[in-house]
Specification:
Structural class: mainly alpha
Distance between the termini: 61 Å
Strand order of the largest sheet: 4-3-5
Shape: globular
Order of helices and strands: EEEHHEHHHEHHHHH
Largest sheet: 3 strands, mixed
Number of helices: 10
Number of strands: 5
Radius of gyration: 21 Å
């Protein structure tokens, strides 16, 4: 559809992966997605079914696992369908919808990581006030506020993207609709988009990580004061999994948004995007279960009950 000197794009072409790679990658991505769904679902079921895990830390972990499940479902099923159908096009409305939900769940992941760091800070530095500060009402409020902030971030970008005009070039060099790729394809001014990206991006990638770092500096200072080595390890083990998840999330995010992209680095960008959008949600259940005795015990009891019911 032509408007003035421009052509209104009705669909985008996702460059994705080459034909030779697609058959091989289909099985890999399908396996990763199934593991992601199974792992995060087991975390949620284990926490919900075990009264010992009905604490703020595991309440936030259940929400984090659900967010990771939704994040992976935003991109991977669409990619698998495209590979199977040998169709790499996505409608304009579908592209905006994918970006909206992807940014929503990414933003929610960031806010939940910050909330989980605050929870560990209160638990370790102010243990006598923990139950008072992290009440059920406070926990629910923190999750609701995180949802609203993440939705506001996503909705702002989506509304601004809908105002842009796109020319004849409709090729996105990724396997899913990427915000930065869409901004590069626009024929109209992206000044407002860049401003929002700068301010919101600064909050999500600089301010919140800084707050998490400050929280862990205070946590480490409190752990050092613990007299016994066993006590130090036990205290640190309660937040080690979260720290690993934070590092994994932000290292993969830096690979997508902060490493300079050149014309010959498209493959590297795709690998970084796969790590960020696909692999990280799969690894988080392993991070939180393998290093946590309470989670391993709850998962064992859940699977035992399931086995008894099926026998």
């Amino acid at each position: 559809m032509k408007i003035g000197n421009h052509t209104r794009v009705l669909e985008f072409f996702l460059l994705g992966f080459s034909e030779e790679q697609q058959n091989f990658l289909f099985g890999i991505f399908l396996t990763i997605y199934l593991v992601t769904v199974a792992g995060n679902s087991l975390i949620i079921l284990a926490i919900g079914s075990d009264p010992h895990l009905h604490t703020p830390m595991y309440f936030f972990l259940a929400n984090f696992s659900f967010t990771d499940l939704c994040l992976s479902s935003t991109t991977v099923p669409r990619m698998l369908t495209s590979i199977q159908a040998h169709s790499n096009t996505i409608p304009y409305a579908g592209c905006l919808s994918q970006i909206h939900f992807f940014l929503w769940f990414i933003g929610l992941d960031v806010f939940l990581l910050a909330v989980m760091a605050y929870d560990r800070l209160v638990a370790i530095c102010y243990p006598l006030h923990y139950t008072l500060v992290m009440s059920a009402r406070c926990c629910i409020l923190l999750v609701v506020v995180s949802l609203i902030l993440a939705f506001s971030y996503s909705l702002t970008h989506t509304i601004l993207l809908a105002q842009l005009s796109f020319c004849m070039d409709n090729t996105i060099p990724h396997f899913f609709c990427n915000l930065l790729s869409l901004l590069k394809l626009s024929c109209s001014s992206t000044y407002a988009n860049q401003c929002v990206l700068m301010y919101w991006g600064g909050a999500l990638t600089i301010l919140i990580p800084l707050l998490i770092i400050i929280s862990y500096v205070r946590i480490m200072a409190a752990i050092v004061k613990v007299p016994s080595a066993g006590g130090k390890w036990k205290t640190f083990s309660t937040c080690g999994s979260h720290l690993s998840a934070v590092c994994l999330f932000y290292v993969s995010a830096i690979g997508v948004y902060f490493i300079p992209s050149a014309s010959d680095s498209v493959s590297k960008d795709k690998i970084a995007a796969v790590m960020y959008a696909v692999v990280t949600p799969m690894l988080n259940p392993f991070i939180y279960s393998l290093r946590n005795k309470d989670m391993k015990g709850a998962l064992g009891r859940l699977l035992s009950r399931r086995a008894l019911r099926s026998s």
